Amino acid sequence: MEKKTNGSLWDDTGVAMITVLGVIAVITVLAVASFSFAQQALLDSKRVEHETKAFRAAASGLDTEMATFTEANLDVYPKTGSTEDGTYEITLVTSLEDPRLGADEYRLVSTGTSSDGVVERVAQQFYYMNLWKMNFAGGGLSDSLVSGANSFTGSSNVIGPFYMRNDFSISASMYVAEGPLFVKDGDIDYGQGMVGLEDEPVDLFCDGNTTALEAAAAKTSPRVFLGAISRSVPQIEIPEITQANLEEWANLAINESVDNNMGSISRGFVTNKETDTGSPAVYTTMFESSGYPRTQADPTNLNYKFIGAVDNSIANSGEGTHGLTIDATTSFGFRGSTNTTNGVTSNDAGSSLVAYPVGLYADNVHDDFAWDSIQKILFVEGTVFIDGPLVLDLDVEYIGNGTLVANGPITVNGLLRPAGTAVQARAREWALGLVTPTTITFTKDTPLGGGVSPNETDVNVIRDTKPDVGGAFYAGESVTIPEKLFMSGSVITDRIAGGQNNLWLVTNPYLPGYLPESLPGAGGGLMMPGLWTRF
C-alpha cells in the first residue's frame, strides 16, 4: 500500500480494467444503436423507394391516360398497364357515380403498385368537352361576345356549355342553363337573370369579377344556382382552316361526286348511282334515255359536288370567286323515290326536283347534293365544296348529313333547319354543317324565337322545339346573328357579332354522335384539368 502525502491510503489496482470495460460498453451501445439506426434507415429507404416507384407508376399511368382520353371510349375502364416502376390500374368516375361531378366532368383515378406490393393512388378531375358540343366565341384576344354591347340582353338565353372572351352581362330576363360557363379575360355583370336550377346548378369558370353573381346565389330565395367555381379559365383557340384543309375538302367533294355512294362511305355504303363509268360527265346524262335528265348546281365543273374551276383548282383561303346562290328559281340534282323524306310529307307531282324512276333505288336514297326549289328542301350528304361565297336566299329545310364548305362568306337569309320535327331530325341523324374561313351571317329575325316561351326553363322542352336554325356552324372570323333567333346546335367562331340580341343559343348534346364530315376540330375534345390529388 502506497502512502499518500495527505496521509490517506488507497489501492488503484483494476481501475484501468474498469475504465476499459466502460469504454467498451459505451462503444457497444453506440455500435448497436448505429446499426439499428442504419437498419431502420435502410428499411425506410427501401419503403420510400417502393412508395416512389408505386407513385411514379400511378402518375405515369394517369399522364398517359389524360393524354389519350376521349369520350368515345368511356366503356373501356378499368384499364391496366405497366412501367419499369410497376403496374397501374385506371378507373373512371363520372357524374353517375359521383353526383358532385358536373356534366362533362370526369375523374380519373390511377392506382400504382410497386414490385413488392406497395400501393399509391393519384387522381385528376377535369372537364372534357367535344368542341361541337358547345357554343364558342372567343378565339380572338380582344373580341367580345357581342360587338358594341358586350352582352346578351332582353330574352336572350344560353343552354349548354358556352365559352366567350370579354365581359358577360346577364340581364333581368336572361336564362343560363346546364353550363359550364367559361368567361375568359372578363367580368360577369349580373342583373336579376336566371342561372341554373336548384337541382341543376351551373359550373362557372371566370378569371374576372363575379361578386354580384355569387351574391345572388347566396340569397335566401336565389335565382342563381352555381356549382363549382374556378378562377382558372383555359385559353382555348378555335382550330384554324389552312389552305391544306381547303384542298383536302375540295378533293373529297370531287371524289364523292363519282363514288356512287350517298355521302361519306364511313357512314355506310348506300348506292345512289352518280355515274356508270366513273366519269363525272355521265352524271348529267345517265338517265336521259329514260326521260329523267339531271342538272347540276353549277355546270362549270362536271363534279356536281364541287363548285369551282374546270381544272379543279381552288383560290387562296377566303378568296374564292365561284359562288353559289340557292333560291326559289332553280332546282338541281336528283331526289329519291316516294319516301325519301323519311316520313316528312312530300308530293312527287308538285316537286320541281326530278325523282329517280320508281323502283330503281331504295326509299330514302338521293343525290349527295340536290335542291327542290318548290318544296324548299335541300339534300346534303358528305362534303360539298364551293370555291367562293354561298348564299341561302330563302327558308330552307334540309335532309341528310353533310357539310357545305365555302371558300368565301356565307349568308343565310332565311330559316335553316332539318325537315320534320326536332325529335325526328335527331332520330334520323340529319345535320348540316356550314364551314368558311371568313364569316357567316344570319339575317332573318323571328318574332318568337322558334316558338320557345321566354319563360321556358325545361331544357328538354326547349331542345324538342323546332329551331329557326339548326346545325353545326364554323366561321374563322365571325358569326353574325340577328336580334331574334332560336339556334340549335353549335356555333364555333372567333366572335359572335351583332347588336342587342334577343336570341336562344341551345346546344345539341347528341350532335357529336352524328357530326357531318369536314368540320374543323371534329373527332377531338377540349381537356380542361381541375383538381389533382394524391391519396
Briefly characterize the structure.
The protein has 535 residues and is of the alpha/beta class. Helices cover 16% and strands 30% of the residues.
Explain the overall architecture:
This protein is α/β, with parallel strands linked by helices and 535 residues long. The protein has three domains: 16-129; 132-230; 243-436, no CATH class. It contains five helices and 32 strands. The strands form five sheets. It has a 19-stranded parallel β-sheet that branches.
**Shape summary:** elongated
Task: Supply the number of structural domains.
Answer: 3
Number of extended strands: 32
SS summary, helix count: 5
Chain-wise SSE layout:
Layout: E1 2-3, E2 9-10, H1 15-68, E3 79-83, E4 86-93, E5 105-113, E6 119-129, E7 135-137, E8 157-159, E9 162-165, E10 168-170, E11 175-177, E12 181-184, E13 188-190, E14 194-195, E15 202-206, H2 211-217, E16 226-230, H3 243-256, E17 306-307, E18 324-326, E19 369-372, E20 377-380, E21 382-386, E22 390-392, E23 396-399, E24 401-406, E25 410-412, E26 416-418, H4 422-428, E27 431-436, E28 439-442, H5 459-463, E29 469-480, E30 484-497, E31 502-506, E32 526-534
Parallel strand pairs: 7-9, 7-30, 8-11, 8-31, 9-12, 10-13, 11-14, 12-15, 15-16, 17-21, 18-22, 20-23, 21-24, 22-25, 23-26, 24-27, 25-28, 27-29, 28-29, 29-30, 30-31
Antiparallel strand pairs: 1-2, 3-4, 4-5, 5-6, 6-32, 19-20
